[in-house]
Structure formats: structure tokens, C-alpha cells
């Protein structure tokens, strides 16, 4: 009897343990590293997926002569991302695996049509294989073009873009690139900034600026470029390093920015005339000066402070002006601030914060910049004049 | 009672502490941050988790106090003494049903969860069956084995929870906790209610104290166990709020699991960390399901004394399996769980109050 039982158990085991329904050999998986979403026509989208070709990824010396591209781009059109994905799996002739998806690029075209970005993006939050750390960027022109940019140092364009988005050494970038952060904003219908990329040449991609997305209107309303983009980073208190250029006594000067601290206070809490004051504190170091300023003098240092803070203030005011009047979109996070510190006022204004009555545009925003230069660099001046 | 010689005194106080913790941490740990967030605003849920934990630990202390006044007696014996035999039998059988349903829920939920996050094609039926087999194996032996397993898995559980918590700390938006105290009274009340439901796993001490040789410290240990679990729940809740924010969390089905999906460890192999944490969640489900089935069998055998344990297990398992396959959609599973939660807390309170009153009147009976 015991033997019979044992036999039975063994037979059951073979039934249950023998095969895994979901087994896919790693050689048969096609890993997606990047995706680009373009508008095909009014309702359909074109999805381009960048699959890795692992055979060509390894840099073996013996293999120097041969070796093709380390990636393969496939695209197809359809109504939903998921449907296109299934379609692409047929083309790929391997099982597509999106667990290592790193970057999603969305074309400007889609972002600018109200609601379209949102309707196509659900799958990235829902699908079990998607991580919340996937990076998102808007592209100037067609998104798929960027997946063909081959930088010399990266074998896979999507990896290159991902590293670009992670760069912390510049200011004209945004802090929001993970789709996990954006999930919350989309859900709450708040506005937010997104990186805005452009293909510069066949080997280079760069930030063109920062795209501004209006949460209530569900579309991208514009792009902040150059100094405006930098100013937005000051306002948002970005934890990046960067630099600021000014002119002093006819000579150029650059200050390297070490840290930015931002503090918002509400000075008037009448919903129809909200007044904010933004204090920006910057710690910096002298990176470059015209050569003749004597840095040992307080007088000179104060001149530097004054010049740079004036410049930054001007930049910030410009940007605030643009956001309030041109875009009428709060990408600065003032609504979030109200929600967190003045929930009662926020309840009154939240439905028409940056649309309709637009309390945001009506509010007064004042800014004050303070700068401290902590390090002079190794030398005092280059000329003895 | 016909007990085998090794039946009594196989459990120490420390085992009770660990068992309470491993039993409470289960499927509900995955969903409870969401459930609490749904009824509270901003990060206020921490108050309800704290309150719920304190209430639960008081309840735990109280029932352990009652149970430990009757050392080495089964639940049926001391409730018969306190509330007459027929009442005790009905009570015990309702407990059997409740723990039976808990087992059913776990068997189904493990399959549903692994299907949602891990497998595409493997049928839920097979996952459930495999899981159930392991649970049956653990239950059909001596109860000492279950306690050993709990103690064995405890470090894994602690390490796993710490990993989930610590790896996510870097992603917390510290300002996201603001504004504080935005919830109305009703919200706090509901939140506390759900937090207590979440921690009702300590009810197993009703049955397991009979196995403790000298249960003088057991009430204290039970309360500690609940408090430790409350600590874990509190930290997990706070980390979830910090990482996702209240609104996003309301929108997720399993926020705690999504937390582990958010974590990224640099380097190719560990970039996807969630697969490893799934292992750890499976172990947690396993301990809870095992104890639920064990209590089911135990309570049934209190009433039907002539049942051999192995026969009871083998008779129950197909019923568990088929019942677990009854819910069709995910929503059925969710509502099943909600009903089970309401039922558990109402029944638990009823039993506790009845026993408490009777205990006050009749007092303990330490020497049978």
C-alpha cells in the first residue's frame, strides 16, 4: 500500500513538475530597450520597438571585422500599444520581453493632441512587466528617428538616450523622467514638465528644452528652451549641477552651480489674488572669469553676487511670465505646494487652477535669488593688471 | 481528549511570538496600504495603522489571557466550561469554517497573484494545486513541524521585509507626506477598522495556546507579536505613501508588491528585483495558509474526536481546492476577501466578548 502511494505521488509529480508553461529560453527572448510612439493618423499610432541583438553586443577582439548592429528596430501601426506589440512579436519571430524596457519616446505630435498621450499610456502602468522606473521623453519631430541615432560609445541608441536622461550635470533638464512619477500627475490631472529631445545629427541627440504638459487640458502646451528651461530648474529646485553665465565689466564670467535650494511661501491667501514668493538659494563656485578681477576683495565678490542673482532673477521672471501668460500652465509645482501646505485653499482653486478661471495665471509670483560663492577655484586671477 | 504523547507543551513562548507575526503578515500586507489609503487622505493612514495595531494587540493580549488561564486545554474544552457544551461546539465549527475559508482564499490568491505578476500561460488551477500540495504536506505531519517551519522562515521574512523597505527609501518624496491631518473622523474610523481586520491573524492563539507548556508569558508575547507586525505595517504604509503618494496608491491593487517592482538595483542581473521578492512573498503566504489549514483540521478534530488527522486533511483538501476555484474574476476574489474580513472581525469580537464575560463570572480554571 505504501509503495503504491509513493508511486502515485511520483506520477503526480511528473505531471506537475515536468513542464513549465511559461518557459522561454533566454536565446528566444527579444529584449526591448526602447520604444517610440508616433502618430500614424487621427486614431492610429505607430509604435517602434528597439530590440537588442545580443550576438552583436559583445566586443570580442577576434570579432573586430564582422558584427552588425546591436539593435533592431521594428515598427507597426495600430489602435493600441498592446495590440501593436502582439503584431510586432510576429515580425520579431522571437518572444518579445519588455522587462528591461528603459526608455519611451513620444512624439510631439501625439503630445499636442488633447488626451491622446493619456489614452495610449495606460498600458505602461498596467502591464505587469513594466517597471515604474522607465524613462519618458518627448521628441521634436518623429520619435522613431531617435532610435536610429548611433552614438559612437553606445551600441544601442535606447541606452544612449537613457543615459542622456540620467545626466545630472546640467540644468536645462527636468527632474521628472520616470513614468512612476508621471502616473501620479496624470491621475491627479496636474501639469508637469517633460524632457524634450531632438536629433542633432546622425550620432548626437540633445535636449532641445523642456516640454510643458497641461494636466487639465491633457496635452502639451509648449516648450521652454535655453535659459527658460534652466530657469524652470531653478524654480523647481532641481538637484543638479550646472552653470550660469554673466558679464562683468565687459568680461565673461561663469559660475558653477553646486546646489540649488528653493523655498515657496504664500504671502496672500485670497484665492483670486494669490501671492507667492519663491526664494532660491544657490551655492556656487567660480568656474571662469575674465581674468582681471581680484577675488580677494569682498567688493568684487559682492559684485559677482549682484550680477549673477540679477541675471537669474531675470531668467526666472521671464519663465514665470511665459508659464503664466503664454502657456497658462503651472509646471512649477505651485499647485502641489498649495495642496501640501494649504489644503483648504487648494480645495477652492484646484478645479480651475490652470484652466478655466486659471487662478494660477492670476496669482502674483515674486522671486528672490540669493547666491553664495563657496569656492574661488585654485588661482586668484590670470592677469596682473 | 485523545492526544498523542507529543501533543502537549511542544510550543514555547518565543514560538508564539514568531507564529503571530508570520501569521498576520500575509496577503493583506500586500493590499492593506491601499485599503487604508482609500479611506484616508494624504498620509494620515499612519494614525489608523497605529490605532489598529494597538487595539489588535490589546485584543490579542486579552484572548491570550483567557486561553492561557486554561493551560493545556483545547479551545473546545475551555469554551465548554465557560459557555456550555453546545455553544462551544457551534463556536468551534464556525471557527473551522472561517479558517477553512482563509485557506481557500490563500490558495486562490497565490495563484491569482503569480498569474498577474509572473506567469502568462501557466493555468491558475495548476499553481493553486501545487501550492495546496505543499500546504497539505506541511499540515499532515506533527504540529511541532509547523512551528519549526515558522521559526525557520522568520529570518527570511524579516530580511525580505527590510529589503522592500530599505531599497525604496531612496525613492521617497519626503514632502509627499504633507498635508497632515486632513481626514475626517469617519475616515479614521474606517481606516482603523481595516487595520484591525488586517491584523486579526493573532486569533490563532485561541487554539495554539493549548500547546504551550507553561503559558504564563504568552499573553505578553502575543501582544508583542502584534505590535512588531504593526511596526512593519506602519513602515510599509509610510514607504508606500512616500513613494507613490496617496492618489496613486488608491489606484493600485497590490501597492506593497508594486513597491518591490519600483526598486531598481543597478547591474543587469538584479535590475529586476521583483522576481526574487516573489519567492519571499510565496513563503509568507505559505506560512499563513499552512496555519489556517492546521487550525481548520485542529478545530474539526476537537468536535469529531475520532477523526484521524491525516484523514481529515485528505478529506478537506479537495473541498478547499474546488472552493478556491469557484470565484471567476479577480473582482469575485476581492469581494470574497472583503466578506471574509467582515465576517472574521464580527465573529471574533462576538467570541471574545462572550468568552470575556463568562471568564469574568466563572474565572479561570488552571487545574482541570
From TrEMBL, chain A:
Family affiliation: Belongs to the GerABKC lipoprotein family.
Question: Locate the Spore germination GerAC-like C-terminal domain: which residues?
Answer: 209-377
Provide the species name: Ureibacillus thermosphaericus
Q: How does it sit in the membrane?
A: Lipid-anchor
One cellular component term from this protein's GO annotations in UniProt: membrane
Classification via InterPro entries: GerAC_N, Spore_GerAC-like, Spore_GerAC-like_C, Spore_GerAC_C_sf
> Which protein are we looking at?
Spore germination protein
Report the superkingdom from the record: Bacteria
Domain Spore germination protein N-terminal: from-to ranges: 22-198
Q: Which UniProt keywords apply?
A: Germination, Lipoprotein, Membrane, Palmitate, Signal
Automatic annotation (TrEMBL), chain B:
Task: Give the record's keywords alphabetically.
Answer: Germination, Membrane, Transmembrane, Transmembrane helix, Transport
Keyword Transport assigned: yes
Family, per the entry? Belongs to the amino acid-polyamine-organocation (APC) superfamily. Spore germination protein (SGP) (TC 2.A.3.9) family.
* Cross-referenced Pfam families: Spore_permease
Which spans of this chain does the record mark as coiled coil? none
**Sorted alphabetically, which InterPro entries does this protein's record hold?**
Spore_GerAB
Organism of origin: Ureibacillus thermosphaericus
Give membrane topology per the record.
Multi-pass membrane protein
Record's GO cellular component terms: membrane
In the UniProt record, does the keyword Transmembrane occur?
yes
| Gene3D superfamilies per the UniProt record, alphabetical | Amino acid/polyamine transporter I
For this protein, the parts annotated as crossing the membrane are 16-33, 45-67, 87-106, 126-144, 151-172, 192-211, 223-245, 275-298, 310-327, 339-359
Task: List the subcellular locations.
Answer: Membrane
GO terms, biological process: spore germination
User: What protein name is recorded for this chain?
Assistant: Spore germination protein
